[in-house]
Batch of 4 targets.
Target 1
Amino acid sequence: MKKLHTSGIRRSLEQTNIRLHDMRHHAREKNYEGMTEEEVTIAQYKAHRWSKLIFVIILLAVFIILAGAELAVGDYDIDLWSVYSILIDHIFLGKPIETLEQTVVWEFRTPRVLTAIAVGIGLAMAGAGMQSMMKNPLADPYTTGISSGAALGATLAMTLGFTLISGTYGTIINAFVFALIPSLFIIALSKYRKPSPAMIILSGIALMYVFNAAQSYLMLVADPNATSAVYAWTVGSIDGTDWGDMPFMWAVVILGAIIMMYLSRILNAMNSGDSYAKSLGINTDRTRVIILLAVSILAAGIVSFTGIIGFVGLVAPHIARILIGADNRILIPLSALVGACLMMVADLFIQAVLSFAMPVGLITSLIGGPIFMIMIIRQKNEVW
Amino acid sequence: MVVEIKATDLGVSYGEFRVWQGINLKFDEPGLISILGPNGVGKSTFMYCINKILIPTEGNVTIDGTDVNDLSFKDIALKVAYVPQASNETFAMTVMDTVLMGRYPHSGFNTSAEDLQIAAECLKIMKISHLAMRNFNELSAGQHQKVMIARGLAQQPDLLMLDEPTSNLDVYNQMHVMRMLSKVAKERGIVILTICHDLNVASKYSDRVVIFSKGEVYCDGTPQEAITAENITKVYGVKAGITEVDGRPYVLFYDGGDEQFQ
């Protein structure tokens, strides 16, 4: 009896499907009636491009809601509309920050949210660029040993007090400079060997071992307080930033975004292999080094402020690719949006669900890993 | 004006191993030219020397009188297009986006209406308009090959080089592609260079045949001049006979017995 029932449902579903298919087919035929083959292709392509824009618009809306929620939630709850009106009043109408509510939103929470967004945008764009440039879905912003370089730089500052520049920014500058060493190393090597993806990955791994060994030694001989501080740094958190950090961090992110957008078409071509990219007029060896440097500065600029926040740079481009495909011209901006949203979701989870402070780097990896698994199993487009 | 490609005393060595040397070839008439020769004889290497993917160890290649070494990749891309043998995409875009990539040397960041028109025409020429919105990696090897040829045509080069463009195609599509290339070459007044392993398809549609063998150009001429039983036996080491189909030489292969394959 039950079996009969379900097969009936299945049949009616199938019929509905067939009808829907016919309707769609009919609509397409009707729409394109009287058009030449070329005109139909172009019309389809344009419709396809518009459908991609819809994803961008939806994600923008999600982004705005998440940012508002991030600013509203905390020990001192503020409702969502007040948050938006405080922001609009202050940014666009120039009203001063006076009340407690305004101070909480603008002085305490906005830097944190801006950091989360910068991290998401920066790491996601760097990840998308790295994956396309290396032709490798496993590449992330840290692939070349950026994170281990940054960690060693920070460790040197925290355990030995060795900093390249003295002052409050000592640790950050240390991390930034050391994070750039792997890509500078590859640039130096590229005079003798072609900077192929394999060469970039392997020299990154080689340097990572050296950096890790040095870092482990420093932590072994350091006093426990310093070791604990290093551990906290390597987990990655957005708690420590304030308005003073914003100019440099955002300068790096905006500069990186401009460079990545400019390179997006070249990245598309490089995805078809070096010899084809060359035949399109792209000097692949030189371009690869430029992309590497841009991605490194972007990732280093972020990691030096926040520590190593994993997973966002790897997974945001994959989510974006599932949504809109592999065209870097739209993939890079959409990855940035996805990355920013992921960071805010992770931070909201800490603020709203957990009652204790936790570094956001732990949450991104903890929640992100399983989500990534589900997506790999479910995705049908076979974009990678 | 037709482009003039000239290779002078060209030689390539990989370390100790010499691929070929003393190659002198000139292409300055519109038409379909097939490069034939056994595996590993350096046919692809010759193409790489023309668009600077590889720097030759001896001699040089000029495009319209200018040494390719003095041209940037971009300058070359405006005149020479290359269609690789196999696709090599990691992250696939739609077929239309893939073909539009061929417009890269001509257009800036944005895709113009003209680019769209050209790409759509190339899809039509290759009879793959129905695949326009499909993802590149959902297609078969033969369809990949047709998309890549469309991408090469979209670049609107003066010299179009194709590395075994028909290797994955069925007999209908082999004939369609070679026939279309021969027609396009004359209509647009461009030189089309293909590497080919099917002697009979090459013979049927080529205007000129260049046979590479043992480190040199063995033979260069019309299909009637180049594709003879004697040449095929010498170059490929296979017992062959020739008959005529559609006014062109047609090669018949015979099993030469155990001694042939020793």
Note: The two ends of chain A are 44 Å apart (CA to CA).
Target 2
Amino acid sequence: MARVVVDVMLKPEILDPQGQAVAGALPRLGFTGIASVRQGKRFELEVDGEVTDEVLARVREAAATVLSNPVIEDVVDVRVETVETAAAGA
Amino acid sequence: MRVGVVTFPGSLDDRDAARAVRIAGAEAVQLWHADADLHKVDAVVLPGGFSYGDYLRAGAIARFAPVMGPLVDAARGGLPVLGICNGFQVLCESHLLPGALVRNDHRKFVCRDQALLIESASTVWTSSYSAGQEIVVPLKNGEGGYVADERTLDELEAEGRVVVRYLGANPNGSYRAIAGISNAAGNVVGLMPHPEHATERGFGPDPRSGTDGLDGLGFFTSVLDAMVAA
């Protein structure tokens, strides 16, 4: 089993009120020195079998058409992650 | 005269939209998200609400509902389609209208009687109004900020496709105070405010705001006039 991770962020020119709210809360909790926060989305897609170039191309297509809205968002990264096999026994 | 109102999982204002259709004098036809059939309606309303919980992005999953297949084709062919609030978000996600709706810039849900300027009376959904007319209808949204790139905004303005604009303070950070737009043909209109909530005396905006509370009815009578004329 392999995992493809897709990161989506609002375009830099689109206002991010969620990120602003987080940025406003940080200093109240003592986390100072953070100039700004922008919040994005991470999708983890578990893929059946091997991640071939073809599979990755399909994921990129899904990322560009469904997982993100190109009017307001950018797909900033699509990468393959190896999924650790669950340790045997308990 | 049959006007369909689509119900998605999470739609809230489908009943009110159907009621507005009936008050305007048409037959309201319930359309179901999972039924890829428009049942020969003459026009369609995509109502407000939170289809699919606004998961992923508002309107993003509703766009792929079975009913949207024939709806998108029919809209491209000239079928009158009105998207209100979540319906507007669905129309943008479906690429029937340009741009997108994002979270309100002030981070709060807004719910109030909203003054609007009708800028275009030449769409099938606004012909009952006159350009320059002021109306007051309810506005209630969390993700109502209309955004598009500068080129698209200029194009909308130049082609007279800004249908309604917010009057007074911008309630949600919409670019150029845009409350509603149309496609190039004028048969597809989307807007954030809720005309269907201002169609019956005593149930619309507060009369103290200087309105009789029926300012939204024109959207529904407009499409009837258009169909009678056709």
Note: The radius of gyration of chain A is 17 Å.
Target 3
Amino acid sequence: MLSSYTAERGWMKQRDPILAPSTRDERYTIRSLHVLDDRWVVIIPGTGPPAIWDIQEDPPKPYNLPESASSAFQDDTGDAKAAIDPYQGDIIIGFWK
Amino acid sequence: MLKPPSILTRVTLSSGFGSELHHDMSRSANFTIASRAQDAPQILRAHLTEPGNDAFQLTAYAAIGRLGPGKLFLEPSRNAIIMEVPGVGIQISDWMRNRTVEIATSGPVRTVPRVLSIIRRNVLRCNNQGTTIGLRLVGDHIILFKSLWVELHLIPPFASADGQPISENNPHPYRFYLQYSHHRFAGASLSEPQPNPESPGDSRIVYVLAQTAFAGFFYFRFTIYNPEYVPSGPGARMKIDLVGAYEMGREEELGPCLAWNSWLGPEGKRGVWIKRRLDVATNIVVAVSFDQSCSEAVPVESGDDLQELCKTAPRIKSTGDIFTAESRNFHDGE
């Protein structure tokens, strides 16, 4: 064990070029997309808060984030990955710049 | 059943662009991160504390060498980082024992000039026959999904402690040609290995959602027999079934589209894909749910043309659009 850090529970967002739809004129991008536990889909858009959908529902059902969460994502940039806590259901979004 | 996600937890790293996050759903609330930080690439682990606690520990677990630019695959249960190394093949590194093994794979690995647009790149990527577009470890083997074929390799032993390679013949890889007419696969998402209810002791199932840019999306079941290596036992073999298909030319109702990208959940039950409309430059994210009973699955033989098999294979039905970038009206910051 080399060292340790403490990270805070909070909010984050990121940049992932995988889904950037084109090089020049595309204004609306999806930075990353993750299917968690065959149920929850987390989409990190170019700007703004993540979109979370329950694809176990037919049709798929959007999950609304609280307003405080939405505002916390406004200025985030960087690369991100998402995962889910199998016991608590919490979604983790790794955020690195 | 999981409750709706009520908390988002943030992990922030500096100088770690391209880092990879992984968790093992079957084990615990532990998360493994391969940090690409230029100054000190390392393995980090995060463990969630009890609900209500507003902090969790992120621990530096092991130092690792400099990582290449390609996509990383993490297998924390094996302490393994897997990556494709151009000109070499697949490299598997054990971060606990600081040892590496390389698997020479077939076909050239070429890079694509950056100046090309992503559409152009997507099309050209299909021509990189040797490029691995998806992979998964299964027992002592690794599945490599390439643009024209699938390979099943036995993972060779790691080098001994003194750095000398262990002399042991590695059987020829199992290669299975897979294509739709003249189109080649541009992306593939592989589920985690699942037990095979028909033969739980000696086989595993991996579900695959793959796409070609112009032909569409295809859902496969890979059955891998004898995935654990036994020196005197029968070698591993693989059976592939086409469980469902979504052909762009037959299904489109909104205008010309490309099959842009696809993702599959870890159990292979559900996934999403993206269609890109060419006329209005819009991404359409579609949710899909798969019938894993596979009652109408079509067996695939190496070299078969999927275009022919699609005539009898079940059609994949979407359960609905979940996100359209244009409709969300995101601002680009300008």
Note: Chain A has one domain: 17-96.
Target 4
Amino acid sequence: MTQPVDPFLLSTPDVVCFDDVDLMGAECTSELQVLEQDVYHVLIQSLGSNPDDLERGIGIEDYLSGTESDLQALPAIIDAQLKEDDRIDDSTTTVTLNDDGSYSVDIAISVSGTVYNLPFAYSNGVFTSGNLVNPGTAPNGST
Amino acid sequence: MPSPLVPIAQLLTAPTQPQIRAMLVTLLVGLNVPADKWRKGGSLSTILTVASIILNGTAILVAQAINGFFLPLARGQGLVNLAFYLYGVTAPQPTQATGQFTFVNSGSGVFAGPSYAAGQVIVEDPATGQTYVTTDNLNIGAFGSGTASQTVGIKCQQFGTIGNANPGDIDEIVTTMVGVTGSNPSPVIGSDGLSDAALRSLCLASLGARSVRGPRGAYQYAIQTATNAVTGAPVNINRWYISPASSSGTVTIYLASPTGVPDANDVAGVIANIQGIGGGVSPAGIPLGGARPGGVTANTSAAATVNYTGTAVLSCSLPSGVTQAQLAAAAATSLAAFMSTYDIGGATAQDDANPGGFTGLLASAAYAACASGVATLGATFYGAKGLTDLALSLGQVAVDNVTIQINVIVTSNP
């Protein structure tokens, strides 16, 4: 029986770190997991705030709590940043204002011919990731 | 066999942040941790970069702390501390820009009394927003009275060269004085705190001040630590000439402020310090002043000013968004700053252009100062004409009285 092939080859694992480093210092178990948290960090970090890569970062909370023009510009800014990542072939972002006043940020990234949907949300001034991390398997919403 | 001498500055050079990061990566790779493969911007790579930044800051702090024990290497606040604790020198503070302001009354009001006493009237340079307070009492009569015009001293309300102004720049009277106009007829100039190099020089001069034999450093120290005989504020004197040797039994000293002639009470303060009148001792126990040893006559006086006049015609480009007036002002400011520090007695040139030697202020130096001024606005300097060399003799100091004219050069390939 042939094993399913991970489109990402886990070459050098990173430490698990979304909003904080994993308490036990666990490493990511797939390159997809690494990519997901990298995308999350690109979204939440302001441009130039990461001394390790001064050219990346969006500061999404500033846009989601900003003006109408900020909101309209946000999808293109996200897509432009993510396309700079050599692992991502394409990116399509949709920002939706929900009835309860919260925002949904849905990002569809294309990696090696496969599209992965990465859901995020912004409510009451807090930006959160959806159910992204599912170590060793494809994330929710992959098509 | 001893190792060859390695300069302390070289020994104490802190590694840069990229160098530290590279060292950390090399160490980790040596431990089979693939730090060289961590993705840029990833969590581990970011942690490594932050660690290298912190280590770099620590390395710089350690280097600065050790440098702070060596006079040639100490900088900034470390040098100020070294000067105070080791040499007993308190770093002189910046001075307020001082000069004159001429009030002209074309109305019927009279401006005298407590409301117009020294310190009560405010004037302003509208371009910089700097304000200046009068230092003399006003006693201005109505138009046609014979006292309708009065020139008084002013000083900037802030310390340092930020208050410097060219003639005519200060032309707004903030205090309500209906019918009165005015401006500054001459440059208004102050000085910043000592540069690190100047403070090091003062520290060395303080060693001379410990001698009872009156070396030149003792006189320099007495000048730089003098206070105004009336106000007690540090003297606004930034240039001095001390005759080379006292073997004749006479030392001649000339003093100049940034504007040229120093305040008479500043000169009195310097004389008192040189003579050791009321000198006392520093917190470190070093005698203050008293540079003149017994049997030596010290003649101290203000340098004589010599106006440097003429019109400097500067040929330069006109950058987009910049006016000729702005270029002229930038050149004038730069020239004024240059001349405010030019040596008493000038410099001596002995080159192809001056085979017999020339002592004074060279026009080429003034042009260079103008060129650096227009360069601050992005203009290209092509050349200049109109000024001549100004001969200066011992005890003379040049004072800026140059008019600037801009000749715009338009090139076919901007």
Note: Helices of chain A lie at 31-44, 60-64, 68-83.
